Every structure is written in C-alpha cells, then in structure tokens.
Structures
1.
Amino acid sequence: MSSRLPDDAALQQLHAQAVSQLSPTTLARLRAARHASQRPSHHGWWLATAASLVVALGLGISFTAHPPLAPPVQVAATLADDSDALLDENPDMYVWLGATDLAME
C-alpha cells in the first residue's frame, strides 16, 4: 500500500472543483470570516505601541517634575571651617597630643 500524496496539479484541480460546488452565500461568509480574523492583529500592534508611549511619557514627566537634588556643597565647606575654629579655641588638644605617643606615629 502506497501512501503517496497527489501532486500539486491534482490538488489544485480538487480545490477548484470543491470551490465551484460552494454556493455564493457560503463563499461570501468564508471571505468575510477570513477578513475578520486578520483585522485584530493590526489593533494589537497599535495597542502595544500606545501602551509603550503612555509609559514612556509617564516616566519622562516624573523625571522632569522631580529633578534630582544637587549635593549640598556649602554644608561640607561649613563643617571644615568649624573644625578649624574648634582646634584654635581649645589649646588643651595640642597639650594632650604632645603628651601622648600618637603625635609620633
């Protein structure tokens, strides 16, 4: 028993014969169903693109509405000045440093 498929020409002839036996109403319904099944794929891409656009705009607006704060440079300069003034006001610090071996290290 051979399980060979018919060649393309024979299959095309069978298809043409089957189509010729269908009524025009059935052909119209099949055509409408084929076109209806193709339309949602286009809407899916538009929906995905629109959702991506909304997310991108939301992120852009959130970054412009709340810009990052600049580091407090003046605070660091003020702290350095305070420590120098503290050492100038307290000479006991120098006496303590001279009495310990920490000054030699």
2.
Amino acid sequence: MTDQRVAVRANHLHKVFSPEEGRIGATLARGETVDFDRVRGTAAVIDADFEVRKGESFVVMGLSGSGKSTLIRMLNGLNKPTSGTMEINGTNLTNASKEEVRRIRRDQISMVFQHFALLPHRTVAANVAYGLEVKKAPRDEQREQSQYWMDRVGLGDVGDKYPDELSGGMRQRVGLARALAAGTEILLMDEAFSALDPLIRSDLQSQLVELQAELGKTVVFITHDLNEAMKLGDRVAVMRNGRIVQIGTAPQLITEPADDYVARFIADVDRSRVLTAGMVADTTAPTITSTNTTGAELARTMIERGHTVSTVLRGRRPIGIVRLQDAEAEPQRSAADLMLSEPTVPRIEPIGDHFGLAARRRGPLVVVDRQGELVGLLTQDRLLAAMSDEGLRETPSHPEPGPPEHEPLTTGGAR
C-alpha cells in the first residue's frame, strides 16, 4: 500500500555507466553481489535507499564526483537506473512509459538548475510563465501567476527584461520563480546557488527557507557545501563514492557522525549559523490557555514536570510566559498578573542571531512557526548547550512546527 505521506522513494537504486550496464543490472536484480571497484566504467550511485516526506526539505550533500547529480537526474527520469526503482508520489518512475514520465515532470516536478537554464529569447515574465504555458493554462492565469511569483522573489520590476540583462543572482531568482509558478509539489534543485557570490547565495538560501516554511513544498536540494546543507535541510544525506553514508538532521550529523568521513566533513561547521531556533528549542514545557490559572497551580505543575517556565497561549499562539519563581512568590495571583511578555523568534532563524537578545532577557525566548504558533522555548542554557556535543544530544533532533507537545493545563478561554 502506498504511503500518502511520502513524495519521493528510492528503492536500492543503482546507476552504473558502463558498456556492461545490462549485465550488471541483471546480476543485481537476481540479488547477487557486484564488486563495483572492478566494474568497467563508473558506478555513480550504489544502493541508494531513502524516502522524502511530503513537505520535507531533503538535502543531498557530497563532494564533486560523489554521485549526487546523477541521483537527482534519476529522480526526474533523465537517467534510467541500472537497478532499483524510483517512485514519485507512489508512481514507479523506473517502469513508467515516456508519456507518463513527461506527465510527472510537467505536473509534479519542477527543476532549478545551477546555471539557470533560462530561455534567452524570452523575457523574464515569459520565462517564469513557461511551465504554465506547457500546461496550456489560460493566458490570464499565466500573466497573473508570473507577476505574483516575480514579486515574491524580488523581480517585480524586471518582467520585460531578458536574461542576459540580469545579474547571476537575479537570473537564479527567475529560475526559482519559474519553478514555483509551475505549481508542482516537488522542487528539485541541483547546486542551484553554487555559482553565486556568497552574499547573494546567503540571501537566496534565506529566501528559500522562508518560502518553504510558508508553502510546504517537497524540496530535494543538491549541494557540496556543508553549511548550506544544514541551513536548508530538514534532513541531510551525505554521499561518498556513489553511496549514501548517512542520513540525519543537522544535530544528528554533528553529534553522531556515522564514520570518520562524515566526522571530518562536519568538523569545522559553524553551529551558531546552521542550528536554528526550532532545532534546539525546548518543546516539552507546560502551557496554559486560561489566564485565570493561579500561581499555586502553575508552580505545582512546573515542579511536577521539571520545568521553570510555563507558556500562556491564546489558541496556539503564545502571549507570554510565567516563571516558576514568580508563581511561587505570589501563589494567589493569576497568570494574567504574573505573565511576562517575551519576544518571539522564528523557528527558522539561526541560533547565532539570538545570543545577545537572550542575554538581555529575564525569561526564555519564545520560538514560533510562520503562523505564529508555539514551537518551544529557547533559554540561555539551551543556547549554550547547543554549542557542545553533549548539550546538543539532549535537545530534540528536529521539532516539527505545530502545537505544543503537552496538553494545556486548563481549557478556559484567555482573558
């Protein structure tokens, strides 16, 4: 039975560029072992086995020649596997007809390339609308969607220009707008930002993270840059010599590298820039939805749960916090009287942006998702702990946006 939560699934995927590819494929299909070191040709991908959940940002990272670009070309049917299968939303792309592959590319997958791949004879607006034109969308829809996505990525005033009139960063924004305008669920991005200057690259990375948080696309992103991988990926797959050697979240790769190769790869990573507020936030602290709750009730629950702070919610949105010391000092007062208003920080922002703010506050920072709903709390101790392996192991590996882990203490409406 097809898992509706999975957008992309690779099953024991191999790709060997060799005059003996047919024989190698038949050998693998029989379940027999192949010595890829002795194969005549290149074993570009060896036994890749993974799933990408719908709405997930999945990054494939590796050095040049590791097999990552070959892998993404099998994801969109450009390379036929030597052995194994690739599924897109439950459809086996490997055995699909040419017509079915074209339909999947048109309706379910958009691609953003390293070197832009724009049509030079078309204006920016026409390039952005290209996917909709292929789908034979009405002209008005093409114009409307083209303008909308140009505005979203900062291209609103260049629609009548041609690609050769734009900078590299602007051209890549055109490629991103084109992929988004096509309206597909899955975005494949092959070294999409690697040809750009560092500042432009960082800006586009941040923009992609923000758009992904809002749109919930399924993104498969190829890169050779570790910091980029950890900034963009919900999970990261590390490739070496055609094999996936580890798949994990940024904290997992940092604290539990699968082998010496991964350990060397991540040795110099800047944790303050790749770990986000959502990754290290405490998602287990108690919450309340009634500001009539007394300090005595709050103190008792915080002590029972081993926490020193409760978050006050209106719906799922935080409106303040109550500290244990304040609840104990004035047990008869209500949460409305004891509540402190603390700043909120987006879950996608790196923790390095918040050390100064955390140091100036009496309470923790409140981490929220794009809808302003509670993700968790970020304390000074938690920020500092995230900079060490031991402290990072104690944090959640990668909390998802959504409601708090615990049910509210009471269910009365906020006053």
3.
Amino acid sequence: MAEATPGIRIRHLYKIFGPRPEAMLELAQQGVSKQELRDRHGHVLGLKDISIDMPAGGIQVVMGLSGSGKSTLIRHINRLIDPTAGEVLVPVDGQDVDVVKMNHRELLRFRREQTAMVFQKFALFPHFTVLENVQYGLQVQGVAARQRREQAARWIERVGLKGYADHYPNQLSGGMQQRVGLARALANDAPILLMDEAFSALDPLIRSDMQSVLLDLQQEIGKSIVFITHDLDEALRLGDRIAILRDGEVVQQGTGQQIVLRPADDYIASFVRDVNRGRVIRCRTLMGEGSPVQGPSVDAGMVIEEAARLLNAEGCKVANVVNARGRHLGVLSMDEIIGAMVPAHEPAAAAQAPDPAAPAPVAWSH
C-alpha cells in the first residue's frame, strides 16, 4: 500500500528542445501552443508545467501515447535530461533534495545509490553472464566480490531465474532477459526504481506475467516506482497513482478509480470507455450504509469483480464490507456491482454478473 505522503515531487517542470530554450521559456509559460512554438520559433515543447506528487513506497504510472512526453519526464528524475525550468525533489537521507541543483559528484552518487532503471530493450551486456549482469551495479559501487555475488544470486532466484546464473543473454527468451534487467535494478537496493516502457517489448502473456512479478515483489520491497507505459490496462493494474500526459502536459492524475469514474475530458473518456470497470472499482466506492447481513464479507479494497464472483459462489445478493481488521463498514449489493460495471454508453440491462468459470477478457492496448 502506497504511503499518503509524496516521495518524488515534480514542480513546474518545463523542457524545451532547440537552440535557445531559455529564450522560449517565457512564451511557453504564457501559453503559446506546442505547434506555434515549433512552427514559428523552431523549438519543441517537450514538457509544459508538469507538477506531480508521486507516492512514497508506491507505483506512480505515467501514461500517454507516443510523443506525449512520458519518457522525457522519467529521464528528468535521474537527470539524464536537464530541464529548462522546474524542480525535481527527491527524499535523500530524510531531506528533500532538488536533483536539478545537484553538482556532478552529487548527481553521480544519486544515480548510483538512490535510483535504478529498467529499460524497454533490456540493455544487458551480451558478453556478461546473468550473474555478472545482475551484480554490475554493485561492482560499480565498489561492493566486495563475495557480497555482490551473494546479493545478485538472491535476486536472480527471486525473479524466477534460479539455475540461469551462468547463462548469457542470447541464451534467454525476451521475458527472461527482462527478469535479468529487473534483478539488476533490484540488486542495487536503491529506493527509487525507474521503469521506462519496461514490459512493452514483451508478448502479451509474458507481459502479464512480468506485471505479476513486479506486483509480488513490490509487496516485499516497497520501492518508490515510476512506471512509464502507453497501455491503459497496464496502468490500471500497476498504478497506485496514474498521471496521463498529452502533448507534454498532464491532462489528469489520480487513482485508477478516479480516472475511470471521473474522466477529466473527452480525451480521457475515450481511453477509459472500454475499461473493465470490475477490475478497477473497489468495494469501498460502492458500499452503502447498513447493518451486517447474512452473507460473505469482502475487504473494502477488493475490486468489485472479485466481490461479484464471491457473491455468485455463495448464492448471495448482498455482502458485508469490512476493513483490514474485520470491522464492519457497510454493505454492497450485487445490483450495485452490476450497475457500476456498465459503462455509461451501454444500457444497464445488458450487464450480467461475471461468470466464475468464464475466462478473463482480453486486455487491449490503447
């Protein structure tokens, strides 16, 4: 569960590409459009006034179509790209530090000790074994050979690659190579994990498997993860918070529930129109007041699709909603679940409770 306080805080971040970005900053701040800045002034507005509070110990997803600025944004967090203006505040030793103001030595230390990155194209050394790849960051940090081998071996096993330590990348499948990349990032034990389209190059089934691996690991490690994707289903499955970018600007940010149930504009509405709401909306959102009833109990954080399956299995129409300690919070009916699972453009009569034996629907990328 993500903490309520922010981890990484981005404040009024601008990035303008071109020969005189600082001279174009005032125009961008005054509201000149991306197209006008390009056509009349020969500069590209990569990011415009980005402000995001990212959850400490949680997964912040940044989503958008190609050219939206999402990969540009993540590269500002470890300052692979310098901003034109703005702040990137990260917690270091209990204090907020602006990455933008770090000198060369501070930045190098920050990259080595505070952040790790997982790339879309794996970025493994082809002449290194799995073990050598995973321990590479520790070697750069100067960790003793025995300690780094033990630490690397532990993460190799943890990501499901036990027995492959002596293999080379070309002997592994794409999914296995990405597990190596994930193990390498986790072996450094950095508090911030940056994942830029990390699973986009994988086949759908392998991609789903890697999402499960990440969620399972996150329960254990509690890193502050920034995950870039163009896929809404992936964003909703992984994200404690989601920020959606378009043309370098944040269009909407919030939880998956907030975005699905209250899209900010037609652009967001088009993204969420075909979302399986049963996998996003949680019981606490739909529950009503009421005394305990004869029926199953469901956790307030459970998605309503799971609650519907439980009600179906037990032949009940109403469930008790409880918190993690088992305290009664309210009640939730099957009728309310069915109504919430129907997008606004579909007639309510078309909805049916999910069949427990039915296969899960295919998740389409947007």
4.
Amino acid sequence: MSHKIEVKNLYKIFGSHPERAMRLLEEGASKDEIMEKTKQGVGVCDASFYVDEGEILVIMGLSGSGKSTLLRCLNRLIEPTSGSVLIDGEDVNALGSKDLRIFRQKHLGMVFQNFALFPHRTVLQNVEFGLEVQNVDPENTIDPQTRTELSMQALEQVGLKGWEYSFPSQLSGGMQQRVGLARALALDADIMLMDEAFSALDPLIRKDMQDELIALQERVQKTIVFISHDLDEAIKLGDRIILMKDGMIVQEGTAEEILTNPANDYVARFVEDVDMSKVMTAESVMLKPADYAYYKTDGPKAALRKMKKAGISSIFVRKETKLAGMVTADDASEALKKGEKTLENILNQNFNKVAPDTLAIELFPLFKTGIPLAVVNDNDHLVGVVIKGSLLAGLAEGAQIT
C-alpha cells in the first residue's frame, strides 16, 4: 500500500560545509561533537518514516530535538541537505520554485504556533489570504465570491460563524488559533502541517482545541503531521507518535507501544510519569473468555457445568457468532430447580459491553459487582472479557515496564 507521505533518509545540516558534518555522522559522531569540530548544526539526521492518508502523526521531542526542522523540510520551508520527501509518490525535493509553490497550494496547509494573523484584516479576510495568494498563479485563480464562500465554510467548520467581521484583537487566543486552522482548511489541502499549534494557549483552551481538532478530523479526515513537545498531547491526538532526540528518530509507534516498550533509557525516562490508564486499552488488559454457553444447544445445567469447570459465577452466551447475553450461576440454579431446559428465560443484559480500543480509565466506572466487562468487535462478537483484577494487573505491569 502506498503512503500519503513517505520520507526517506532525510538530513538537514545547518552551515556552509554540510559535507563535513555528513562524514562525521557516518563515522558515528554525536551532534555536539560535530558542532564542536565543524561548526555545522545537525537539524535532522537520517529520518525515515511514513504517514498514511487520514492519519494524525505526532512528531515530538524536547527543544532542539529537530522536530520543527523536520516538519519544515516536508514543505521545503527549510531545504533538506539530502534525502527524499514523497507526497502521493511525487518527490517534493525535485520540484522547481514555481512547481513547488503550486504543489504547496494544492497539497499543504500549515498552522503555526503564533497564529500568524494580520491585525489589520478581519477574521474573514485573514482566512481568505491563502486563497488570495493562489491567484498569483493564473491557472489557480479564484473569484472573490467563491473565495468568500470557501472561507465562510471553513469558519463554520471551526465554530467561528458570526465572528467573520471581527478583528484578531477582539478574539481570545483559542479563537485566534481557530482562525489559523480555518485558513488552512479553506485551501482544501490534502495535508495539514501543524507546528506546536496549541503550545501558546492556556491549558484549558489548549484542551478545548485538542478536542476540537479530534472532532474536526472525524469530519474532514485530513492527513495531519502535528509537532508537539507535550507527551499527553501526543497521546491524545496521535494515531502514531515519532519521538526525536538530537535530530534523530529514536522510536516510532502507537502511544501504547512506546509507553509499554520504550526503545531505550531516554524514551523510558521521557514517558515514566505518564498515567497508563489514559493509554492502555481494553484489548491490552482483557482475558480470553474461559468458556461460552450456546443459546441453541445449552440449557441451565450445561451452563452451570461450564461455569463450575471454569471457576466463574457468570457466563456469556453466544447465538450463532454474536453475543446474545449473559447467564449467572444463581439464575441458572433457579431455572434448573424449575425444570427449565433452555436459557431463554434467564438470559439477561445486565452487563456492559466495550470496544477493544476503549481506554482503561473509562472502564472503571462500568464494572458491576462480580460481572466482567464484555469486549466486543464491530460485529458484536465477543473477543475478550475484562475483570477488575486483570485491569489493575495490566496497569501495574505497564507502569513497571515504563
């Protein structure tokens, strides 16, 4: 399967003699050693990764790790020293200046940390700016009415309808960032590059913007590369996370993969204070069902026998391939005394079902006394059960690993 973005062996060396730094990198020299010996700065070192269509990839690291430099190499705001950036199979680094400008307008929208709004323009005029720039290219000309319509649609998407004639100074920080987001959306670019987009916001506004981005992504399904130095933000937003140090990618994977299997001591220290209940999922702490009762063939006696053998006090019931309900040992015993031969009258729904990707923190309020949670897939097929003991043990084990 082809990827929306594919980066191969990308380097960025800052300085007038990058070849000196490249030679030392091949010999295993560190970023600091190269700066000391050559006065060349290593921004990105041999980065290779991909982003699939509709995915949010978060690139994170501490200040100076190279994450923002890497992002700007994708659209050549910073020229890479070597390597390739393929977008829909086209090598961005091979484009001439005119073709690059057209390519950016068609494929790439960017949202900056500092909002980058024009104070003398209204909200609507700020959103229209990117479309105005497109008119430099005669083949891409958009008439003023269409420009306004597209901008208004984008403002509505980010919840700013009614503010179009206000000025940036009249908006809160979160609202100003929404204007920047709307400007990128108005271009209808395939890819959004977001550089520390929420870092300048207060914590509560920042959380609201993260929620807004998740909701927006469900509607528009853009491919997003998001830069952050905040691990909690990366975990919340990212389908996958790339962690960088000294210009190099040190680990790539889902939040759970990175937190439960850190690649080295640096990653382990980076993630050691994370609340695992906000990362681990039902799938990672569930147990295989000890047994099933079958609606068509099992009665109370068979259900009790299976429960006794498995050492459980309730059993889930399957009807064909789907989860039909649950039977408790007490109900099965009463039915047996009454001479009932089927499970029909004692089948109940007094349990909670969750999806495999439900976060562990969301599972605790769902437990009922003595009754496990059923983990079901999209076809309502039982794939596992979660008991409180397995949940607590899974969280404890995950915390020890990190």
